[in-house]
Design goal:
Layout (H helix, E strand, L loop, with lengths): L14 H12 L4 H15 L4 H27 L25 H25 L3 H28 L1
Helix pairs in contact: 1-3, 2-3, 2-4, 3-5, 4-5
Length: 158
């Protein structure tokens, strides 16, 4: 859990920022989908393999923190944090990869987190409000830690 030394409040209303952040929050490759993906993977290993169960629990906890951080911004911007992308497409279980092979799971997770990192970096270039950038920077740190964690798991398994 990252410790914030800033407070998000009184942000200017911006539908542009809302649409960017909503995609990160609940878009087809957003944090809510990642969270559901990790939950599915966790459940596959629950009471079967303690090490992988704990690994996916760690990812679930990190993803929840990312969801919390981006939803805080969305709420202050006055955006409804419904589970839909910025174009109104609602989240569906069809967006989860129901893969059962561990290596394939990890490689898919790595790909998704790498996409998140690229999206966050791009978003930081588009947003001029420093407090939002600070929050995105914190999310980026979490995502980079997730990526390192997943890559280390892949190395351990090989």
């Amino acid at each position: 859990m990252l410790e914030k030394n800033y407070k998000i409040r009184n942000l200017p209303h911006s539908t542009y920022y809302q649409s960017l952040l909503l995609e990160l929050y609940s878009g087809s490759e957003g944090f809510v989908i990642n969270y559901l993906q990790f939950m599915y993977q966790y459940n596959l290993f629950f009471n079967k393999n303690r090490a992988y169960e704990e690994a996916f629990k760690y990812l679930i906890d990190n993803e929840f923190e990312c969801i919390s951080l981006v939803s805080e911004i969305l709420n202050v911007l006055g955006c409804d944090t419904k589970f839909a992308s910025n174009n109104g497409k609602f989240i569906s279980g069809r967006q989860i990869d129901y893969v059962k092979d561990l290596m394939q799971m990890l490689l898919l997770d790595i790909e998704n987190i790498e996409k998140n990192i690229i999206e966050i970096k791009s978003m930081m270039q588009k947003i001029s409000v420093n407090v939002i950038k600070n929050q995105l920077r914190d999310i980026l740190i979490i995502k980079q830690n997730e990526l390192r964690f997943l890559k280390n798991l892949v190395i351990e398994i090989k």
